[in-house]
Request: fold
Amino acid sequence: MDSNLVIQTPAGGQDFDESQVPLYYSRKTVEILHKYGPGPRVHFHMGLFVPGATPNTTVSQRVLKRRVVESQEAIVEHAARSWGAYSNPPGSVLDIGCGVGGGSLYWAQEHGATVTGLTVAADHIPVIEDFARQAGVGDRVTPLLADVHAFTADRKYDAAYANESSGYMDRERLFQVVAESLKPGGWFGIQEHFICRPEWTEFIDGYYKTRLGTLTEYLAAAEAAGFELEQDEDVTDRVAEFWVQSMAWNTAELDRVEGPGAPSHWSPERLRESAITHGKLFRIWRDHALETRLLLFRLGGGI
Reply:
């Protein structure tokens, strides 16, 4: 999530048309690469900081960008280590809502996995393919244009992974699809945000055009599909700093674009609005109105 890169609220408060999500993400590709690139491992999600860390934000935009990107890598690495991927690496991974492929490349490069990355944005396919070639894993990363709700794969994968993408999906159907796609005993790792104070639901869902849920909802959907919860880690306090660092990058970008002849993918007005929203998002995470959690589910039937 990033408040620079969100679907704007429709005039008059109309319900968002889910069919617009692929178009939205296709249009945002250049902006994502500008802030989080150049790649080949480019992520589009929150990042993890050392407990209690409040890094100085009066540094260069280049330093801020490096810090944000490193935090994104850190949370992927932390999750993989917590989920046992180093002691028992998955041979095949289904990356659900893979963005521009950062997570898919991670699983292929760091753990030797063969990865299928699902995306609803057609423009992301060649980007992911190019990044995979650059990273030397073009033979192990396959981006696939597909909606997970209609996806089928009979017991093909050792693991599935959804990093801040499940909020756009029907949870019951998601867990059903993953259960049908995993080998017996396979695992499903999720990084996601969960509503803790319902009064913030309208703001978050309205701004991001998502439908974040509660932990209870996820647990019920998982159990119905045959999963057991193995790990539940609350990393809210360690990701809240992401909003501070991201906001600092945005204000540095605003300073840059207000200079003479400086091109940008965002208007000054949009950057100012985003800075204000970042402040609100930081407070939401700091106060645990939302919580970011790393969940590990295991499918029954393993040896």
About this structure: The beta strands are 92-96, 114-119, 141-145, 157-163, 182-195, 227-234, 290-299. The chain has one domain: 16-299. The chain has a mean pLDDT of 91. The first strand starts at residue 92 and ends at 96.
